[in-house]
C-alpha cells in the first residue's frame, strides 16, 4: 500500500543525501585544488628565489675568476716593483668587487712566495698588509684555500670574519704567473674576498614583505640566510660582541659559534629529513598549530657543498577561509535551493501521484465521456447493496434497469463520433436529472446505460421510473444547430426474484432489454424466466443471417395497397421474409434489428430493392397493369448505404422507370441530419421516385418537418387504426392527419386495416389507400402476380388457389 508520508520522508532524506554528498565532494575537491594551486604558486616563487641565489653565487664565482685571470697580475719583475704594483692592483680589485657585490666586506691577497706568510688585505678602499696570525693559519678556510688548484673557485662554509667580525662566506682562487719573471708558471698567491650574509638575505626578498620568508641552509641544515628579520637578528646576535674580543678570545669564540638549524625556522623536526633526501619539493607542515607551505630546491654552491634555498609561506587562512566561505555560502545556498526545490518537486510528484491515483481510480470506476460510474463501479454498487441487505436481514427490494438507445448507431455513423459523444453526454445528463438523487446511473458501455433504483416498495415505482425515462429521452436533442430524436429500450430485473448477485441481475435486465427492443422499441419490459433462451437464439440468428443471402433463404413477399373507393390495386409493398431450414419462418421484427446492429442491413436491403424492381419490371413486361412498388428503407441503409447511388444503379440495371418506385422512410430518419436527408430526397425525386413516410404518428408527434421535405405519401401507423372504432381521440387524430396530409398535397395510406368497419370509416375520412389483412396479407410473387392480373384480393386460401 502506498504510504505518502513515509515515501515523502524517504525521498526527502534521499534528496538531502544526493545533495550533500556531491556538495561535500565539491568542497573537498575545491579545497584540494586550492592547496594544489597554492603549492604550485609557492614552487614558482621558490624557483625565483633559487634562481636569484644561483645567479648571485655564479656572479661571485665569476668575479673571482675574472680577478684571478687578470693579466695585470703578471706585470712585476722585482720584489719592490711587485709589491708596489700589487698594492695598486689590489685597491683596484677591491673597488671592482665592491661594484659587483656591494656587501663585500673585504678582499685579501695571500702571497705564498715567502712561505705564505705575508697577506695584503683591502678594507674600505684602504690597502694594508700584515702577516697571518697562527690562529688564522689554522682556520679551515685558509687551510682549504691554500689547497685549491688553478682554475678552481673555493667557496667556504659561512664563518665569522676575523676582520669584520660578521657572518660571511668567502671565495678564493689561486694566482699563477704565466709570463716572465722569477715566478713564471708558479702559484704565487690567492685572491680572496668575503661577502656579508645579510646581502644574500636582503637580495632574497624584501624584509618588509611578511607574506612569506625565504631561507638558505647548508648541507647540515644550518640556517645561513633568512629574509625574516627575527632570524637575521638571531644570526647577528651570535657575533654581536665579536668586535670587542681579543684575537685569542675570538679564536675561542669561533670554535663555539653554531648556526640556527632549519628546525628552528620551521618548527618541524621531520622537514630536514625530507629536504635532505630530495632535490626539490613542496610540503604542507604545521608549526605552532598553524599550517604552512614549504618549497625548496638544492642549489650547487661548490663541488663539496650544496645550499638549499626555499620559502616558507603560511597557509593563507584568511584567504582560504574566504574562498571556502564563498564555496560554503554558495554551497549552502545551492543546498537550500535544492532542498526547497526538491521539496517542491517531491510535493509536485506526490500531488501528481495522488492525481494519477485519482485519475486511475476515476478511469477504473468512471466513464471518461459522461463522468458517470462505469460497469465496474456499478457492479460493485449492486453487490454492496446486496451485502448490506443481507447483513440487515430485511426484505428490501431494488431494480436494475438496462437502457439501450434505439437508432443511436445511425446517428453516430452518419453524423460522426463527436456528435455521437455529445448525444451520449446529453442522455447521461437527462438520466441523472430524471431519477432520484440516491439512484445510481452508469454508462455500461457504448450506447447502453444502467440504473440502480433502490428502496423499492412496489413495482409501480419501477413502472413510473421506466416510463419517465422513455418520455425524457424522446424529447428532441439540439446539437450543433441540428435537432435529433432517439428512443430507448429498457429491460428491468428485480432483486431478489430475478437474481442474487450483480452479474445475474444485469444479465437478466439485458435480456429483458432485447425483448423490449423486439416489442417495438421506446418500450420497457420486466424480466421473465422464459426470456433465458433469447440470448442463445439471438447468437444463433446472428451467425445464420450472415449466410442467409448466399443460401437463398430470404424471399420477397408483396402486400397490395388498395385505392379507395374504387378498390383497385394501386401499388405493392415489398416485404422480406426469412425461411430458415431448421428454425423455420423468422419474423422481420426479430432479424431486421439484428441486421441493423451488425451492418448487414445494407446488403440485405440492396438485395430486396433489386428483387422488387426486377419483379415490377417483369409484371410490366408481361402486360400487367402497372403498379408502384413500395420498399422500406432503414435509417442505417439511408445514411450509410449510398442509397441514391444504389437506387440509380438498380433502376438502370433492371430497366424500371423511377416513377414506379416508392421508398418508405421512417419519421426518425427525417429528423436527424436534415440537410443530408433533404439533399438525398431531392436527388431521389430527380429520378422520378416517390417518397413516403412510414408509421406516421409514432414516436415524435411532430408534423412541422413535413413542410420541409418533398413527401408524396403519408402512411398512418396501424396503432391509430387498431383503436379507431373504440377511441374518439384516435378518430380525431386520424381525421386530422388525413386533412393535414391532403393540405400538403400528400396521398394518405392507412396501415393495418382488418375489418369492414375500419375500411368504411377511413373511406368516409377520405383516405386514399388502404393496406391490411382485410384485403390481403403479404403473399408470394406468384400470388401477387395473379392478384394484379385479375385485380382480385385473396382473403381466403381457397380464393388464392382458384386464382
From TrEMBL:
Membrane topology field: Multi-pass membrane protein
Subcellular locations according to the entry: Cell membrane
Transmembrane feature ranges: 12-29, 326-346
Domain of life assignment: Bacteria
Location of the GGDEF domain: 396-529
Gene3D superfamilies in the record: 3.30.70.270, EAL domain, PAS domain
Protein name according to UniProt: GGDEF-domain containing protein
Lineage of source species: Bacteria, Bacillati, Bacillota, Bacilli, Bacillales
Amino acid at each position: 500500500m502506498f504510504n505518502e508520508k513515509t515515501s515523502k520522508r524517504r525521498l526527502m532524506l534521499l534528496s538531502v543525501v544526493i545533495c550533500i554528498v556531491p556538495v561535500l565532494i565539491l568542497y573537498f575537491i575545491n579545497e584540494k585544488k586550492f592547496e594544489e594551486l597554492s603549492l604550485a604558486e609557492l614552487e614558482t616563487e621558490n624557483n625565483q628565489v633559487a634562481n636569484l641565489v644561483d645567479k648571485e653565487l655564479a656572479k661571485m664565482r665569476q668575479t673571482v675568476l675574472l680577478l684571478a685571470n687578470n693579466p695585470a697580475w703578471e706585470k712585476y719583475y722585482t720584489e719592490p716593483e711587485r709589491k708596489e704594483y700589487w698594492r695598486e692592483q689590489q685597491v683596484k680589485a677591491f673597488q671592482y668587487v665592491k661594484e659587483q657585490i656591494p656587501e663585500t666586506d673585504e678582499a685579501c691577497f695571500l702571497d705564498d712566495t715567502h712561505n705564505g706568510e705575508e697577506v695584503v688585505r683591502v678594507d674600505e678602499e684602504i690597502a694594508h698588509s700584515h702577516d697571518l696570525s697562527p690562529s688564522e693559519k689554522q682556520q679551515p678556510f685558509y687551510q682549504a684555500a691554500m689547497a685549491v688548484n688553478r682554475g678552481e673557485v673555493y667557496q667556504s662554509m659561512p664563518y665569522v670574519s676575523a676582520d669584520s667580525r660578521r657572518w660571511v662566506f668567502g671565495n678564493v682562487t689561486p694566482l699563477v704567473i704565466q709570463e716572465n719573471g722569477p715566478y713564471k708558471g708558479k702559484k704565487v698567491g690567492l685572491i680572496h674576498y668575503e661577502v656579508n650574509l645579510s646581502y644574500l638575505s636582503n637580495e632574497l626578498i624584501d624584509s618588509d614583505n611578511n607574506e612569506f620568508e625565504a631561507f638558505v641552509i647548508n648541507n647540515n641544515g644550518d640556517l645561513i640566510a633568512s629574509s625574516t628579520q627575527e632570524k637575521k637578528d638571531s644570526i647577528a646576535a651570535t657575533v654581536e660582541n665579536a668586535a670587542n674580543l681579543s684575537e685569542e678570545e675570538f679564536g675561542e669564540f669561533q670554535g663555539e659559534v653554531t648556526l640556527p638549524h632549519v628546525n628552528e625556522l620551521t618548527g618541524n623536526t621531520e622537514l630536514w629529513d625530507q629536504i635532505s633526501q630530495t632535490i626539490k619539493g613542496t610540503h604542507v607542515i604545521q608549526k605552532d598549530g598553524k599550517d604552512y607551505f614549504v618549497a625548496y630546491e638544492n642549489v650547487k654552491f661548490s663541488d663539496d657543498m650544496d645550499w638549499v634555498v626555499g620559502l616558507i609561506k603560511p597557509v593563507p587562512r584568511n584567504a582560504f577561509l574566504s574562498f571556502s566561505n564563498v564555496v560554503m555560502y554558495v554551497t549552502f545556498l545551492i543546498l537550500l535551493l535544492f532542498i526547497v526545490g526538491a521539496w517542491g518537486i517531491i510535493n509536485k510528484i506526490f500531488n501528481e501521484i495522488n492525481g494519477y491515483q485519482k485519475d486511475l481510480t476515476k478511469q477504473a470506476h468512471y466513464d471518461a465521456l459522461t463522468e458517470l460510474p462505469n460497469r465496474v463501479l456499478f457492479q460493485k454498487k449492486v453487490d454492496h447493496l446486496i451485502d448490506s441487505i443481507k447483513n440487515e436481514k430485511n426484505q428490501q427490494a431494488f431494480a436494475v434497469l438496462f437502457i439501450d438507445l434505439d437508432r443511436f448507431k445511425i446517428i453516430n455513423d452518419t453524423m460522426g463520433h463527436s456528435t455521437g459523444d455529445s448525444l451520449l453526454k446529453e442522455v447521461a445528463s437527462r438520466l441523472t436529472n430524471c431519477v432520484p438523487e440516491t439512484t445510481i446511473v452508469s454508462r455500461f458501455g457504448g450506447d447502453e446505460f444502467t440504473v440502480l433504483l433502490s428502496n423499492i416498495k412496489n413495482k409501480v415505482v419501477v413502472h413510473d421510473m421506466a416510463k419517465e425515462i422513455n418520455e425524457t429521452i424522446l424529447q428532441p436533442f439540439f446539437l450543433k444547430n441540428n435537432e435529433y430524436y432517439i428512443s430507448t429500450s429498457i429491460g428491468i430485473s428485480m432483486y431478489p426474484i430475478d437474481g442474487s448477485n450483480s452479474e445475474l441481475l444485469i444479465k437478466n435486465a439485458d435480456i429483458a432489454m432485447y425483448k423490449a427492443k423486439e416489442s417495438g422499441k421506446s418500450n420497457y419490459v420486466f424480466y421473465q424466466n422464459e426470456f433465458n433462451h433469447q440470448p442463445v437464439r439471438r447468437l444463433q440468428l446472428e451467425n445464420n443471417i450472415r449466410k442467409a443471402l448466399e443460401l437463398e433463404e430470404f424471399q420477397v413477399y408483396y402486400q397490395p395497397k388498395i385505392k379507395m373507393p374504387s378498390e383497385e390495386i394501386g401499388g405493392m409493398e415489398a416485404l422480406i421474409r426469412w425461411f430458415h431450414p431448421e428454425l423455420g419462418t423468422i419474423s422481420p421484427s426479430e432479424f431486421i434489428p439484428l441486421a441493423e446492429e451488425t451492418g448487414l442491413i445494407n446488403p440485405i436491403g440492396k438485395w430486396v430493392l433489386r428483387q422488387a424492381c426486377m419483379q415490377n419490371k417483369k409484371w410490366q413486361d408481361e402486360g400487367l397493369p402497372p403498379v408502384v412498388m413500395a420498399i422500406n428503407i432503414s435509417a442505417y441503409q439511408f445514411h450509410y448505404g449510398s442509397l441514391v447511388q444504389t437506387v440509380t444503379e438498380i433502376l438502370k440495371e433492371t430497366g424500371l422507370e423511377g416513377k414506379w418506385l416508392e421508398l418508405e422512410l421512417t419519421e426518425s430518419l427525417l429528423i436527424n441530419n436534415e440537410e443530408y436527408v433533404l439533399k438525398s430526397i431531392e436527388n431521389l425525386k430527380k429520378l422520378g421516385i416517390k417518397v413516403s413516410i412510414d408509421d406516421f404518428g409514432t414516436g415524435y408527434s411532430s408534423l412541422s418537418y413535413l413542410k420541409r421535405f418533398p413527401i408524396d405519401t403519408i402512411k398512418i401507423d396501424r396503432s391509430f387504426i387498431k383503436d379507431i372504432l373504440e377511441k374518439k381521440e384516435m378518430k380525431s387524430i386520424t381525421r386530422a392527419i388525413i386533412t393535414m396530409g391532403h393540405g400538403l398535397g400528400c396521398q394518405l395510406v392507412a396501415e393495418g386495416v382488418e375489418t369492414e368497419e375500419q375500411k368504411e370509416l377511413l373511406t368516409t375520412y377520405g383516405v386514399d389507400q388502404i393496406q391490411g389483412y382485410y384485403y390481403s396479407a403479404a403473399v408470394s410473387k406468384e400470388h401477387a402476380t395473379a392478384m394484379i392480373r385479375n385485380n382480385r384480393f385473396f382473403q381466403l386460401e381457397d380464393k388464392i388457389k382458384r386464382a
